[in-house]
């Protein structure tokens, strides 16, 4: 049984972070750090390691930050009405106050309030994102709020009504391949009546449903020849057999899952404490937690795909009860970022040669 090793709090009155015994060792061995978002309190967290090997937590404030996806030199992040592209400004081998990456919100696209969930960069270098409010896949536009790329065939028109709660996106071979939605419906907020078992996975290229009967599915990802996802309403992480449409659970996760990223044979899964309102109450997750005698957690679980076990974890306590997305930052030990609450960003000036 693993015990707590690390306890970090940038402000004890706000939140506290604990980890399993060997979480920091695993991060050092795998040579990675993490980026997490929580729209609950509007924070981007960068989780790395200090030179001493202790956990390093860096946070910045952005309203309703949700989707994350990596780029060659940084990452994209969605917020309340903008999409930000963060770029690392530190040359290779250079550090700033002990940090080996300094991410600056270099480009911001104003999209309006689209409730952007999953995002990914395709093989052409274009950002593709799930426009949940308008029930479609989109890309950025230089002149408009967004450019639609695809919508489910059961959605009759593009309108800001969040009809099916389209939320997840998986690329395959650099192209948008699969999406998840909570319910197949074509009326405003109609998905809420399908939470328990109306979730589905669609093949984008064929515009066909390839799996149904899911409960609040999120975060589909293609990895090692399989389509993985979080069946969040039950707490089960697993993959879809595309020939049969059957969901095959690998492991149970102690929380409401959103956010999934792979690193070799490991899956990093974001878990949240459910809000007990009309959206999250009455799901099988409650019974599954009760059967195991555990409470829902907020944090990141590391699952070994070869054995299906949660081998490491990181937990938030305090004001942070929900996460949305998680990505790894390979080759990065201790990242930091700039935001807009201080004047530091006004002094970071670079000239392109």
Output the CATH topology.
Neuraminidase
Helix content: under 10%
Give the count of helical stretches: 2
In CATH terms, the superfamily is TolB, C-terminal domain
Q: Which runs of at least 5 residues are low in confidence (pLDDT < 50)?
A: 1-10
**Overall mean confidence score, pLDDT:** 94
Order of strands in the sheet with most strands:
1-2-25-24-23-22
| Protein structure class | mainly beta
N- to C-terminal distance? 54 Å
| Number of strand segments | 27
- Main beta sheet, described? 6 strands, antiparallel
Order of H and E elements: EEHEEEEEEEEEEEEEEEEEEEEEHEEEE
CATH class: Mainly Beta
What does this structure look like?
The protein starts with 6 loop residues before the first strand and ends in a 16-residue tail after the last strand. It is mostly beta strands. The chain has one domain: 6 Propeller (Neuraminidase), CATH 2.120.10.30. The strands form 6 sheets. The protein has a 6-stranded antiparallel beta sheet, with helices on one face. The protein is globular. A hairpin with a 2-residue loop joins strand 6 and strand 7 (about 75-80). The longest helix has 9 residues, at about 285-290. It is built from 2 helices and 27 strands.
């Amino acid at each position: 049984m693993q015990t707590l090793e690390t306890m970090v709090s940038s402000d004890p009155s706000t939140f506290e972070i604990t980890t399993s015994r060997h979480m920091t060792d695993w991060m050092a061995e795998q040579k990675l750090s993490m980026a997490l978002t929580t729209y609950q309190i509007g924070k981007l967290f960068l989780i790395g390691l200090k030179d001493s090997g202790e956990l390093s937590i860096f946070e910045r404030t952005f309203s309703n930050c949700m989707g994350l996806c990596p780029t060659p030199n940084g990452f994209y992040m969605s917020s309340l009405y903008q999409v930000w592209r963060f770029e690392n400004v530190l040359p290779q081998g250079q550090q700033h106050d002990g940090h080996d990456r300094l991410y600056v919100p270099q480009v911001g696209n104003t999209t309006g309030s689209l409730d952007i969930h999953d995002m990914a960069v395709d093989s052409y270098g274009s950002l593709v994102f799930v426009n949940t409010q308008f029930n479609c896949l989109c890309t950025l536009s230089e002149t408009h709020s967004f450019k639609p790329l695809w919508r489910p065939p059961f959605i009759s028109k593009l309108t800001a009504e969040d009809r099916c709660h389209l939320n997840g996106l998986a690329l395959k071979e650099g192209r948008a391949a699969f999406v998840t939605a909570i319910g197949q419906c074509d009326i405003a907020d109609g998905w809420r009546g399908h939470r328990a078992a109306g979730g589905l996975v669609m093949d984008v290229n064929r515009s066909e449903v390839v799996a149904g009967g899911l409960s609040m599915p999120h975060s589909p990802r293609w990895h090692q020849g399989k389509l993985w996802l979080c069946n969040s309403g039950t707490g089960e992480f697993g993959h879809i057999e595309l020939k049969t449409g059957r969901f095959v659970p690998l492991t149970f996760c102690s929380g409401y899952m959103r956010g999934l990223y792979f690193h070799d044979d490991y899956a990093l899964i974001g878990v949240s404490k459910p809000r007990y309102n009309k959206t999250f109450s009455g799901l099988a997750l409650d019974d599954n937690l009760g059967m195991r005698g555990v409470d829902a957690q907020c944090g990141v679980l590391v699952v070994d795909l070869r054995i299906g076990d949660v081998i490491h974890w990181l937990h938030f306590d305090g004001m942070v009860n929900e996460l949305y997305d998680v990505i790894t930052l390979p080759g990065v030990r201790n990242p930091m970022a700039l935001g807009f609450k201080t004047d530091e960003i006004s002094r970071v000036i670079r000239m392109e040669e």
